[in-house]
Amino acid sequence: MASDGTATVTDIPVDGVTLEGELVVPPDATGLVVFAHGSGSSRHSPRNKFVAETLRERGLGTLLFDLLTEVEDQERENRFDIPLLTDRLVATTAWVRDRSDLTADSIGYFGSSTGAAAALRGAARPETAIDVVVSRGGRVDMAAEVVDDVTAPTLLIVGGDDESVRELNRELYDALTVERDLHVVEGAGHLFEGPGELEAVADAAADWFAMHLA
Length: 214
Prior knowledge:
The structure is a single chain. By secondary structure, this protein is an alpha/beta fold. About 35% of the residues lie in helices and about 20% in strands. The chain contains six helices and eight strands; from the N terminus they run βββαβααβαββαβα. The protein has helices at about 45-55, 70-75, 80-100, 115-125, 165-175, 195-210; strands at about 10-15, 15-25, 30-35, 60-65, 105-110, 130-135, 155-160, 180-185. An eight-stranded mixed β-sheet has the order 1-2-4-3-5-6-7-8, sandwiched between helices. Helix 5 (about 165-175) links the parallel strand 7 (about 155-160) and strand 8. The longest helix has 17 residues, at about 80-100.
């Protein structure tokens, strides 16, 4: 996977629109993690950027991108259109694989909140050939109907005090038939804002990706 490790702001043409993204691939990266942010967020999400930095420190490339254009994001219902977001994620994955300057043989998804539903749905599609999925505070119930089609090892990270989302993740964990883990950050809410909580998310994600991306 070739790159010099510098951040590249890039345009991603998909489905007749252009999405903005930031691609960073450290030298000799062992895989690439594509981020799917939650509703109302963007590639500038400070939480996802923090996780991405941790992943790069572990020798993984990262792609943070906007699932919607600025105009589309003004329509609130688009933020919860999981089929649309999934299509954008799948198309972006194909764009990554088609790039001649990347040898992106190993690709993982990191999804947050509603973006986790898009990540699981995208991983369930055979054409993406996704190697691993990590969900942070994911609305994984929005992908429950495709759980049998997910073949990638899946890590679900939830806050111990985020009770409703934790229960949704427990139900999906029980339904998954692949290698999976449920990582609970004790005392954390949905946004992992307490001291050390986001660090715990990033470390757990990095360990899982490092294990499964080669």
